[in-house]
Amino acid sequence: MARLDQGPPHYEQMLPPIIKENYGKWRYHEIPRPGVLKHVSETGAELYSIRVGSPRLVSIEFVRDLCDLADKFCDGHLRFTARHNVEFLLGDASKVEPLIAALTEKGLPVGGTGASISNVVHTQGWVHCHTPATDASGVVKSVMDDLHDYFEEMKLPAKLKIGLACCLNMCGAAHCSDIAIVGVHRTPPRINDEKIQKGTEIPSLVASCPTGAIRPNPKAKSVIVNEDKCMYCGNCYTMSPGMEIMDPKNDGCAILVGGKTSNARTAPSFSRMVIPFLPNNPPRWPEVTEAIRNIIDVWAANARQGERVGEWIERIGWERFFTLTGIPFSDKLIDDYIFSRETFRTSAAFKF
Amino acid sequence: MARLDQGPPHYEQMLPPIIKENYGKWRYHEIPRPGVLKHVSETGAELYSIRVGSPRLVSIEFVRDLCDLADKFCDGHLRFTARHNVEFLLGDASKVEPLIAALTEKGLPVGGTGASISNVVHTQGWVHCHTPATDASGVVKSVMDDLHDYFEEMKLPAKLKIGLACCLNMCGAAHCSDIAIVGVHRTPPRINDEKIQKGTEIPSLVASCPTGAIRPNPKAKSVIVNEDKCMYCGNCYTMSPGMEIMDPKNDGCAILVGGKTSNARTAPSFSRMVIPFLPNNPPRWPEVTEAIRNIIDVWAANARQGERVGEWIERIGWERFFTLTGIPFSDKLIDDYIFSRETFRTSAAFKF
Amino acid sequence: MTEKRTPKLDELQKGKWPSFVTEMKRAAVKSPAAAELVQLLEKSYEERKGHWKHGGIVGVKGYGGGVIGRYTDVPEEFPNLAEFHTMRLNQPAGWFYNTKSLRDLCDIWEKHGSGLTNFHGSTGDIIMLGMTTEHIQPAFDEFSEAGFDLGGSGSDLRTPSCCVGPARCEHACYDTLEACHDITNEFQDELHRPMWPYKFKIKFSGCANDCTASIARSDCSVIGTWRDTLRIDQNEVKAYVEAGLDIQAAVCDKCPTRALKFDYKNNELNVIPEDCSRCMHCINVMPKAIQPGKEKGATILLGGKSTIVQSAFMAWVIVPFMKMEGDYEEFKDLMRRIWEWWDENGKTRERIGETIYRLGMGKFLREVGLPPVPQMVFRPRANPYVFWPQDEIEK
Amino acid sequence: MTEKRTPKLDELQKGKWPSFVTEMKRAAVKSPAAAELVQLLEKSYEERKGHWKHGGIVGVKGYGGGVIGRYTDVPEEFPNLAEFHTMRLNQPAGWFYNTKSLRDLCDIWEKHGSGLTNFHGSTGDIIMLGMTTEHIQPAFDEFSEAGFDLGGSGSDLRTPSCCVGPARCEHACYDTLEACHDITNEFQDELHRPMWPYKFKIKFSGCANDCTASIARSDCSVIGTWRDTLRIDQNEVKAYVEAGLDIQAAVCDKCPTRALKFDYKNNELNVIPEDCSRCMHCINVMPKAIQPGKEKGATILLGGKSTIVQSAFMAWVIVPFMKMEGDYEEFKDLMRRIWEWWDENGKTRERIGETIYRLGMGKFLREVGLPPVPQMVFRPRANPYVFWPQDEIEK
Ligand code: SRM
Ligand code: SRM
Ligand code: SRM
Ligand code: SRM
Ligand code: SF4
Ligand code: SF4
Ligand code: SF4
Ligand code: SF4
Ligand code: SF4
Ligand code: SF4
Ligand code: SF4
Ligand code: SF4
């Protein structure tokens, strides 16, 4: 029988001995090569962490493979990172290269440290969620195949964090990423009265619409949508399956850039929309991968060392970003929601 | 009989000859002494403008005095500035000192140029308006008496522009001033049903409340105010005399700082509240003059040359501003209106 | 009425700044209304509250605005203030006067009003403060005769104003006085006959220093600028160096876009043209050495207003560059399109900035026919809530 | 079901990045559900749409959350996906594992589920992806036996997570793993039994680098910091100089508060203590030479969430400095007060940040008992719309 409320396993039983011994005693780190962190302790101990890219959506066989490697090289310990990479933890420098060789043999990429791109934080998409406007894993695979070099080498101006969310619920929390890919709908929900009648609380449904586009339709015991007011956020669909919002012809991806969450140098910042829509073109989403490569290439060519995407853009100005990348500007990129006022250029100083 | 729509007099007939001759040809200017601008033209002509402080609320005798001086020294021409100062325009350098002497004799201050305080843009107050929460001219007189030196000398870090508005309608447009004095109410309107019944359109009155605090009271053919929702903006009183908002015990002044409108260096910025309330204490408003002197003194002592009040504060941080000035911080200074989100410190980087 | 003491106000006759109380008392000598106003104000100083009522509608024939009705709430005590209206007169562009005109104004006002005035009102008008209803029309007739016309009030175009511009400033990028005068005259009907959702203000500044504070104080702000590159006179740069200016610290380091490079060795200053945002800072510090480019015009910004009701808005860019020349037809045409759109979409007592905020810039730009450009925003939207015109999508 | 071709998905087995399709196919070998999932996904790739329906309520005994119901909308075609629920398991703090635990998880999941999993979910849980309703309870029992418990879902406390912190990072200002573990255990009831207006997430980062992105991704963000002054080791500074680091350019010039002064002559680096905002930049660049101060703790920020509905919010400072030690009672107490307030004031599906935005920080601070300090805001309000508690004024 299950023990209720026992909570997660204690982390201590998961830590390798070298970490237990040097817990809280780390003095500094270096990155001897991409994908490898070397942490040095007050005690003189040296810990090597080998960072490995993972597709995140994996089989238990994959996990077992990881365990085999950890057993062989790391005395049975490993961890995952905040961005879903795997980290193998080694006290013994001589095992670093053999482990990397073993990983390479398995086709697992080593990298993601320092001024590189790390793994893409992402979501379920068509694999498992009911509200997606795009797939998650497929887009990520396509993008990472294309950016593979940037994962395995540290040749970017700074860290690059890409996030993907397959609908505006934003489970990928992409809103503060250097580059964000967000699944978007573009047509109002199609109302299925029958489904609504089954178990939808009409007042909650009406209240769920941020723009007040939904009003009750007492005759049909359902609702009506004022299509002019709808901005396709899908919140009503989250509330009721009767508000069908998926639309294969018009669903796709928006691209936002320039967010970050670290407080280093500049305050955390939101990602901002630069491409309002790119089509869903499975299996390889060429429009998306191309758009992202373009942004990264222009950033890499123009930014100063250490400048995150958003820091670079804020220095040169968004107007220059559009010139340099050749991305067309449009009224869709101008905010028209609650906090729009702050985005308007209330200044006569700008670049042509 | 009046000619309709003839428009204002043509400015050309108002310009002194030296300006007509050098119109659009000015090459540069200097400030030979406080209150005197020397503009040099491509033609070599030199124009001296003597800037003089005015109470703005003046009698026709005052205007006639100005005319006498302009006739005597300036061939019958003068102008007023965007901040209600008077400017005497002279082509002849030798007349500058005699004019200043004549002005001084009349008790008129010469100054307001360069790194000085200029005149206070202000409003009607108790002299002529129906919605004021404080007086205008009396506060300005008190403040300017106190800051007189800063008008006549150029010893501040930068230009200093004070604005005053006697109610939230903000006729002084104080919202982007280095220092703003704003008349504020602090109690909800007291409803006078009788006055409302006379000629107030109830739906417009209800709609006028930004917080939705007003609802109709059909019985009384009047309205009811939800006092918890009221923020004393007075907009309802502007709409109807039946919403009596003046309250001698609780009306007074708020102080906001750090606004500017020029685009030089930094973008135009709003003034921000640092003191939510100071009492109306006529005739000299000592609490207000003292608070302003404190802010100016701390700014003058700490800012770098050329730093406007807001630029200084943004460099050192608002948290430091409160420490340096000793002004107490309170929850009233934290925004809770539509655009509040942008003011919250969404960063772990701050000063203690 | 017997002369009463005004101990509180008397305090305000002391001190170095010229006293409005003294001015009121000067007017009081000739005007019984002004005399009562002194007493009324003393009363306000004692009671800490105002004594004016909401205005009834007063005005001149043929106009809908320009006069603000004002009545005291204690007419029994102050019969001469029972009616005490304000007349707004449209100032000449740049607030320049010859003494003849000023004296005319004084003489007329002595005859018809309190003898009290504001030079100027905060929007820019000459404010004639305090007159009875019956004097309104005759006073207007005489002001008109003297060449003056009424300013705006109510839901109309308010009296435009402009900075001193080319009349006395080396920075002016267009003729602010001519633009202000010409455009004010073009829109006399809009100025005199309120017919919009709310007031609309226009201010003209010759450069980004914005000496009319237009970006904060007007619905439409017209700010001079240039489209090419600022011009640097290297000889004058050297002269500034010799005069002791620390160009690196005082100019380059404060350039917001770091567009200026100072070459210590040769005492030369150079600009990276595409980086300069034309903020005016370097020109302000070194007017002899740096001047605006040659291809001049203005940036048009829209939506400024103060606090009530949605919060204060500053005006934002809607046209990055427009020539301001000739008959200003491009500008006038834009104004007409904007007003038409606002008329159709604005609610009562909603400023244009609030209407656009409520309905969205996208809709505004499309319907007014303005091309969206990144210069309109500091940065693009952070949310993904795009309204897609449904004709742009595949049905 | 006969094996069908998946030409689209096969494309995604090419390329250098490890393939999720390959993983799905690996699971498909043993799991018919996983096999169907490959087909279903191919269908989605063809049709460009998803095939999942809204979840019905499923769960384990005694808990209100932790399992997400999921059903395909084409159960006839894919009977093994008719029920395909997700179980969220609370990861160990810092995402550290020994292989024994991981193998246990795999074995249990092989028995009860699809063999597909996410290491990890975006909130931090281990995601067990795809099981039938009847397997839920037995699977849970076994996971429990193996030492694991469910994570959060629904309107409850979501599974907290933390950065690697003192386990492997020199910057950690408090013990993120211990804090995360202790606090997660304290709030098991809140985590397992949804009873709030909406979800509530907590993330622990050891310093301002915020390696859990907590400021964007959690309602409550706990970010390590210090109250005294950062410590500089001048010998190590000299070593960096010798190694060729341009300290002025790479460190001092990028310090947001310009708090660092580099002395070229002596190769010394000094900080102006009161100016440093503890952004971590200089420490990141020179970890051997610069380290946090000694008086360590955390800044508590509140209100982060993503886009839906009012726009994304980042969390903002509500306690500039709190010690994170011992039993964390100060923190726990604060959480309880916040939740109580939110319970009373929040609307259904309103995140705490949205509730505060709607009702105002003033009310929140007063009622939760937090002293207002300027550290809570980038800058004070620009509008004069102060709500005055009517007991503070003179009636
Ligand atoms: C392992 C991990 C923590 C964990 O518990 O899992 C981690 C580990 C380290 N981070 Fe981080 N960060 C990790 C996620 C993050 C995140 C969160 C995220 O990516 O979602 C951030 C905030 C991202 C943002 O700002 O948008 C983050 C912002 C930083 C920064 C600040 C970067 C900047 O300049 O903006 C540093 C400092 C630096 O690298 O100079 C940092 C520094 C470090 C150091 C150097 C700390 C140390 O001394 O050990 C570690 C190695 C960094 C590297 O990869 O080069 N870490 N780091 C996370 C690895 C994720 C991954 O697999 O890539
Ligand atoms: C599994 C996961 C995505 C993933 O692939 O990793 C996920 C999946 C879902 N999320 Fe999420 N969210 C997940 C992390 C997030 C995050 C990211 C985070 O926690 O850092 C966010 C944005 C941050 C935030 O909290 O704001 C997020 C914001 C949402 C929202 C919008 C909430 C909001 O206030 O804006 C919803 C909608 C809702 O709750 O009704 C949502 C709803 C959902 C639902 C339950 C869909 C629904 O409405 O029923 C998804 C179930 C998918 C499925 O069937 O498999 N999910 N969700 C993540 C949880 C894994 C875990 O427990 O570790
Ligand atoms: C006369 C006047 C224009 C008019 O048509 O009336 C004027 C005249 C000049 N302004 Fe101005 N400004 C005038 C109001 C303004 C305003 C509006 C206001 O005060 O309400 C502003 C914007 C205020 C703000 O930013 O909040 C303004 C911001 C400037 C600036 C930018 C200052 C800055 O660095 O932020 C300059 C440049 C400078 O001084 O270096 C400037 C520069 C100048 C120059 C030097 C231009 C020139 O070369 O002739 C003039 C003399 C300045 C002086 O007083 O030292 N003028 N100037 C206005 C005088 C008002 C007064 O009586 O004090
Ligand atoms: C006379 C003047 C103040 C002064 O002492 O100079 C003034 C006086 C009044 N203003 Fe104003 N406003 C004056 C410039 C302004 C300005 C400043 C500006 O134009 O640069 C503003 C702020 C800028 C703006 O337009 O937003 C201003 C924003 C208001 C408002 C709020 C409008 C809004 O949208 O927020 C009101 C309320 C209203 O219109 O109902 C208002 C209303 C009023 C009324 C008519 C009061 C009323 O509700 O009936 C005042 C008449 C006072 C009287 O009886 O003498 N006044 N008013 C200014 C006009 C003089 C002139 O024509 O030159
Ligand atoms: S982002 Fe949307 S579609 Fe994707 S997993 Fe989250 S709720 Fe589902
Ligand atoms: S999609 Fe969003 S905006 Fe459209 S009706 Fe539904 S809730 Fe409203
Ligand atoms: S600010 Fe208010 S009280 Fe003062 S003049 Fe304007 S409307 Fe009247
Ligand atoms: S004072 Fe303002 S907030 Fe209060 S009732 Fe009147 S309009 Fe509403
Ligand atoms: S706005 Fe520019 S052009 Fe006009 S007066 Fe000011 S500095 Fe001169
Ligand atoms: S005008 Fe402003 S932005 Fe342009 S070079 Fe000069 S200081 Fe820099
Ligand atoms: S947040 Fe700070 S303490 Fe935690 S891992 Fe990142 S750098 Fe280290
Ligand atoms: S921590 Fe950041 S603010 Fe403090 S000295 Fe270092 S770089 Fe400057």
Give a short synopsis of this structure:
The complex is a heterotetramer, with two copies of chain A (352 residues) and two copies of chain C (395 residues). Chain A is α+β, with helices and mostly antiparallel strands and 352 residues long.
Structural commentary:
The complex is a heterotetramer, with 2 copies of chain A (352 residues) and 2 copies of chain C (395 residues). By secondary structure, chain A is α+β, with helices and mostly antiparallel strands. Chain A folds into 3 domains: 15-105, Alpha-Beta Plaits; 121-184 and 249-334, Sulfite Reductase Hemoprotein, domain 1; 190-244, Alpha-Beta Plaits, CATH 3.30.70.20. Chain A has helices spanning 17-22, 60-73, 96-105, 137-146, 148-152, 193-197, 202-208, 235-239, 286-302, 309-316, 318-325, and strands at residues 26-33, 36-41, 46-52, 57-59, 77-80, 86-90, 162-165, 179-184, 190-191, 214-217, 222-225, 243-244, 252-257, 272-279. Chain C is of the alpha+beta class. Chain C folds into 3 domains: 7-145, Alpha-Beta Plaits (2-Layer Sandwich); 161-227 and 297-394, Sulfite Reductase Hemoprotein, domain 1, CATH 3.30.413.10; 231-291, 2-Layer Sandwich (Alpha-Beta Plaits). In chain C, 33% of the residues lie in helices and 15% in strands. Chain C is built from 14 helices and 16 strands. Chain C has helices at 7-11, 20-30, 32-47, 99-112, 133-145, 176-186, 188-192, 214-217, 234-242, 247-250, 281-285, 329-345, 352-359, 361-368, and strands spanning 52-53, 67-68, 71-72, 86-89, 96-98, 116-119, 126-129, 161-162, 202-205, 220-226, 231-232, 260-263, 268-271, 290-291, 296-302, 316-322. In chain C, the strands form 5 sheets. Chain C has a 5-stranded mixed sheet. The interface between A and D is large, with 115 and 122 residues. Bound molecules: siroheme (SRM) (4 copies) and iron/sulfur cluster (8 copies).
